[in-house]
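Lab notes, practical 5.
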Amino acid sequence: MRSIISTEPASAKAVALAVQEAGWLEIKGIIAEDSTIFLATASLSDQKVLLHRIAQMQDDVRRCPPEAADKPSGEAGHGSSPADTASNQPASQRSRLAPIGGNWR
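Output from the prediction step:
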């Protein structure tokens, strides 16, 4: 299964690196360009786990006050996550998930 994450310009490689360093076992491959990340999973089940993780990170960022996002990791109670790059952006401008294939929306 394949999923695409759209980010703000010049953010995709940093987000992809953070996702890769997180060691999520469901990810079988990752490619990043300027504002797009391609994630490959072995199965629909793995894709659902991945999308759930990313959605949870986005929810965590939305709940994190902007002043907390400016503090170094550990001070705000939030460790570094792939979604941290979007923490000061309105929800409408944060990463958007778009799986390819399957029926997820």
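Observations recorded by the TA: The radius of gyration is 13 Å. DSSP finds three helices and four strands in the chain.
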